[in-house]
Known about the structure:
By secondary structure, the protein is an alpha+beta fold. It contains seven helices and twelve strands.
Amino acid sequence: TWQWDETAIQTYTREVEKGGPIADALRAFNLILGSSNMMAYLTMMAPRLKELHRVLKPTGSLYLHCDPTASHYLKVLLDMVFGAENFRNELIWVRSNPKSLGTVNFPNCTDTILRYTKTSKYFFKQPYGEHNPEYVKSAYKYKDENGVYRLLPLLNPNDNRPNLTYEFLGVNRVWRWTRERMNEAFAKGLIVQLKPGAVPQYKKYLQDSKGRTITNCWVDIPQASGNEALGYPTQKPLALLERIINASSNPGDVVLDP
């Protein structure tokens, strides 16, 4: 924990004297927070975040793990360091065991991970998880010789696409695909019309699905426990680190945990 002491005051003075967006943010924080420990924390974070931005590759990302008491201040500070245009995600990590404050507040079971990139040309690989068996059972309810599949719409959400408006299997609509692609998919048996006059749909086989799309709400990674738990209050479980590293780097890339 940081304290508003002589070291924090010296750091604050030094950063403010440099001027620029970060100095502006620190002055604003000081008006709101005054001589508090939160102010000391933000003051100490400012030069560290500047150095992390400096050493980060143009294609790199920064993930900052925090809790709701400081996440809103840190987001403003990161906007000043990285540029608000390089904010990418506010990830919500739902831990398995909530922090209980008795009966005065709702127990807090989430942490925040702020994701920023150095530039607009960053590396990112969308992660996927395993499908929920109940979802597979309800969604993939059709089967043929190629496996189980679900039916998905072929209609275009944009109804002002003259080049994609045509008649197919007796139905005139604005389609997602061109006529050529539609005919090709139909020839391969990938398009189904459940009854005459019904809007055709296409087959999405389970085997072709990459899995459950991971969103910004991470509910599938519990906090470190058992032999993995080290007793460190903000320990990141291996599964959390693996997801972050796999999403924003390639094997052999350099990753810094400061």
